[in-house]
Amino acid sequence: MATPARFTDTETAGIDFQHVSGKSAFKRVVETMGPGAAFLDYDSNGFLDLYLVNGGKFPMTYYTNRHNDQRLTTNVLYRNDGDGTFSDATRSSGVGYHGYGMGVGVGDINNDGFVDLYITNFAPNVLYQNNGDGTFSDITKTAGVGNETHGR
Asked: Do the beta carbons of residue 17 and residue 7 sit within 8 Å?
């Protein structure tokens, strides 16, 4: 049986994530909703990895984060290194969606033994198919699941 994960110092563990809620004076409903997150073993190494969904500002543009630099809000995939630390695998895996994310679902959509990701957004949803080599492909259009409405 695996030991449960306990996060006490996320920065030391390699997790440097800041959720952007889009909080504004307009108080839109989506600005009050929390982000999605998922534990999954995307690389099949026996350790649970972490996918964190980010929001954004309206319109979905740049924001200033706690490090005072400008960057797009993005979802983040952290690879569990198996020693209590995580590495940012967002770019190398291809799952850094830049939009107003709402939630995430995981499952093996094609029964190939690799966990795939379905991201719900305040925009079209996105389906990432796991290629089995640490990368994902965006198959939203071919699968016909890019729902244009609010994250359903």
From this structure: no
On whether the CB atoms of residues 117 and 109 are closer than 8 A, the answer is: no
What strands lie across the sheet with 123-130, from one edge to the other?
Answer: 101-107, 116-121, 123-130, 136-138
Q: Of 69, 54, 68, whose CA–CA distance to 22 is shortest?
A: 54
pLDDT tens digits, residue range 74-118? 899 999 999 999 999 999 999 988 878 889 999 999 999 999 999
Q: What are phi and psi of 135, to 5 degrees?
A: -120, 165
Compute φ and ψ for 77, nearest 5 degrees.
Answer: -110, 120
- Over residues 120-136, the pLDDT tens digits come to 988 889 999 999 999 99
By three-state DSSP, how is residue 142 classified? helix
Three-class secondary structure of residue 74 per DSSP: coil
User: Which structure tokens are listed for 128?
Assistant: 């990432």
Please tell me what DSSP assigns to residue 21.
-
